[in-house]
Amino acid sequence: NMIGPNSIGVAAHSSDLVDVHANLMSSNSLAGVTFVNTDKSVIWANSVGGSASGIFTDSQSTKNEMKFNNVLGNTLDINNADGLALNINENTYEKNNCNTSNPVGVCVGT
């Protein structure tokens, strides 16, 4: 799927078991993908660019997996609850190609 331009490409609110897979998201002004109070979901194998936040999860979104995404060219590529430590909300980030993240260290090569 090609998603954009919008304010938010994909948004899940108060959801469980969401699967966001194989999308091309570009020019979504606020975020490519946003999880708010969303649990046990997965964002994988997507390309996200041209947003303020490429992938954003809030502090109430727990036990989600973000893996094998290309998240480049965003103001902030990956944002885990404005820098919340990963052990607090138990979100996992695996092999995401990105340049900037909050907290630092969730991008491949950083």
Describe the fold and architecture.
The chain is mainly beta. Helix content is 4%, strand content 44%. The strands form three sheets. A five-stranded parallel beta sheet has the order 1-4-7-10-13, with no helix packed on it. A five-stranded parallel beta sheet has the order 2-5-8-11-14, with no helix packed on it. The N and C termini lie far apart (29 Å). The mean pLDDT is 96.
Main beta sheet: 5 strands, parallel
- How much helix, percentage-wise, in residues? under 10%
Strand order of the largest sheet: 1-4-7-10-13
The rounded Rg comes to: 12 Å
Q: β content, as a range? A: 35-45%
Q: Could you spell the SSE succession in H and E letters?
A: EEEEEEEEEEEHEEE
> Tally the helices: what do you get?
1
Rough shape? globular
Give the end-to-end Cα distance, rounded to a whole number of Å.
Answer: 29 Å
Number of strands: 14
Residue-averaged pLDDT, rounded?
96
Q: Structural class from helices and strands?
A: mainly beta
Low-confidence stretches: none
